[in-house]
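Hi R.,

Quick one: here's the S1 motif domain-containing protein sequence you asked about.
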Amino acid sequence: MEAGTTACLTVVREALFGYFLSDGEEDVLLHHLEINDSIELDQKIEVFLYQDHQGRLSASQTIPSIQVGKYDWVEVVGIKEGLGVFVDIGLKKDILVSLDDLPDSMQLWPKEGDKLFCTLVKNNKDRLFAMPATDEVMRAQAKEADKGYLNRSVHGTVFRVLLVGSSIITDEGIVGFLHESERTKEPRLGEEIVGRVIDVKKDGTINISLMPRTHERIDQDAILIFDYLLGRGGSMPYTDKSQPEDIKKRFDMSKGSFKRALGKLLKEGKIYQEDGWTFAKELESGK
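And here's the predicted structure, written out as tokens:
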């Protein structure tokens, strides 16, 4: 009998806390809390084997979809600094994802309610752990995207975090990559994100972006600049001639983005520029 797998065992005797099951050589306890159906002596039943809190091999009539060699989505239900995160696989006992299989930064660990695509593994002491799927596992069972996905919005879950970006699996089962340049902050492992497909690769994977489309960026930048302008009483010492480093320091945007946003405000008649300053027409006209 092996933890993390199922077995068909015979009910050999009743005990104070449940029933003992046997394969003819070894007995294991099926606790009352892990019984789902009525049980009779000499009956053969299928059970899932795992270790209880004392490390003893135990049985459950709940058969998890995640087992040794079998993957499925499981929910994060607890976080323990210095240890890892716990996931619910359907048993009374939650299973640990070791910190060795999590990002180095705890800020990128999954939060409670996040989901991980995991299998069960055993350490050298035969204790069960949950382990997130590798990139190879995800790609082996993934679907391929076609060119019709270009510019489409997709929902996905982060299954791998790297310095250069994050790997995701979409709700449709397509593997995608989010480069660090296409995000404003790094998503955590297990986080659900909504992105835009910016490239479909020959192998059927996709590249996605969390950045707004160009016209959306201009709108957002224009709002930020105009709010700043109004907050200063309708004038500011910044124009399309200002130095890039000054623009970056004040607005956290490139000069190109700043000029495009100013151009939008100029076209809409909301501002004008004079002597190295920008003014709001609204306040000047008393509107």
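The chain has four domains: 6-60, 72-133, 142-209, 214-284.

Cheers,
M.
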